[in-house]
């Protein structure tokens, strides 16, 4: 037996953890570059396939880069190194490193992006926010009960404390003294799911990339309906906690590394060395006040 699994062995484990069929129809997941027969000894995991991460690939000598975000989400007719994305492909290929993407299929999987975020912020007895019909454990986001009641202000500080630091930090909308008992989370951009959060009756919603108009309308509607129902000023749920996109998805990388190792062992395949990149690939570098 070889002392290292082949790339095709590793991809089979990844596809079992994050089935490509569960990705959204618009998504682009799976193996982007690499020889299926090549041996894999070192695997680097990162949120984004950007130049700084490729630098880490080259420095560490990784044989496989697993990223959450796709390099090519739309069709392309060229991977020439004269473009920034083509340069990523060339640098990886010439160094002997493959690239594999697990995006919305990793968002919805058990121990995927949503579960990793839910674990960090303390959500128990949870279920998918939007379940896939064929499997009640698979779906976008998670919603459930907080391990203990907490104020919105303290909860927002908890979220900031467990996620990677970014220039944006963590914003919240609502009365900081309001008590929370339930929460919903979606890693990455989540304002398209406001109706699902309302239907789930979550006290607070943690997600990323919240835009002004959707967030303002959600909060205005919540306050109006709370007042109409005679609830106190602290009512008007769901409250909002807005994180940097990169930060909300980064925690999953540790789960992916652990589950890849377990999947290889279950199949009797040789182990690989894994590393979770701690490079902050959030595009914002500062804030002025």
From TrEMBL:
It comes from the Bacteria. Pfam families: DUF34_NIF3. Gene3D superfamilies: NIF3 (NGG1p interacting factor 3)-like. Keywords: Metal-binding. Homohexamer. Belongs to the GTP cyclohydrolase I type 2/NIF3 family. This is GTP cyclohydrolase 1 type 2 homolog. It comes from Myceligenerans indicum.
